Each structure stands twice: as structure tokens, then as C-alpha cells.
Amino acid sequence: MTNGKVLLTQDGYQKLQDELEYLITVKRGEVSEKIKIARGFGDLSENAEYDEAKEEQAKVEAKISELELQLKNVEIIKENNKGNGKIVSIGDTVQVHNINKGKDMTLKIVGTIEADINENKISNESPLGKALLNAKEGQIVEVKTRINKLQYKIEKIIR
What we know:
Blueprint: E1 6-8, H1 10-39, H2 48-72, E2 74-76, E3 93-98, E4 103-110, E5 121-123, H3 127-132, E6 140-144, E7 149-158
Parallel strand pairs: 1-2, 4-5
Antiparallel strand pairs: 3-4, 3-7, 6-7
Helix pairs in contact: 1-2
């Protein structure tokens, strides 16, 4: 988040929209049905199924509220907001070479909400994301960790 705004790519925005729609149109109904069935088991004070269903309902409603707030404050990263093509910007995919480990990586820089290391998406607020932003192809950036300093060479910026 930057200045209260939630930075998302168009894909990230669509995923949040889809998740919200699923929770509202499908999941709410499923949980409501679980509560209805659990009520039929009798005494609610000792009804574990009812308690579990109500807890699930609370989690679903909290997630819906969270997504609605995020979507309300979204700023979509657009192609024309990504600089002149010579420097790394949010939304870019960057091929880097970890000089310390001799390892190549391809990373996409996204807003915090979209970050997912399993998909090679890193946050613009992460140490590496911050170091890469506004850097140029061929440039070496440095990321300080608690243990040492890592160096990454920007091999290519992909738009």
C-alpha cells in the first residue's frame, strides 16, 4: 500500500473482484446452509456444528469486508504509468542475476497484496523490490540482509 492506495496489476484487480464475487454469491450461501442444517441438530448451546458454521460465517464476512475495502482503494498499475521503458517500474517483469549465488531469476514486481513468491511475484515494498525499482538494465543493485549484502544484476526488463 502506498498513501492508502492498494497497487494492483489489472490481473490482480480481476482476481480480487472474482474472489469477492465468489464469497458473496457462493460461499455465503454455503455457510448459511450449514448454519440451517446445524440448527436442526437441536440445542445450540452444545452444538459443535453450529459453532463451527457461525465461526466460518464470521471469517467469510470479515474477508468480504477486507476485499471491499481493498477494492475501494485500488490504484491499477497501467501501462502508461510505467515510465519510459528504460527503468524498472511496478508491474514490470525483471530478469536478474544473483551475483552472490550465481543464480538467474525472473521476478514480477507487484503491489503488496499481489505478492506471491510461488508465482515469482515480489512486492514493491520488499527489500529486493525496493532495490529494483527505478534501476536500469545492466545496473547492479544491492540488498542488505541481516547477515550480508546481496547483489543483483538487472539483465532485462520485460513489459
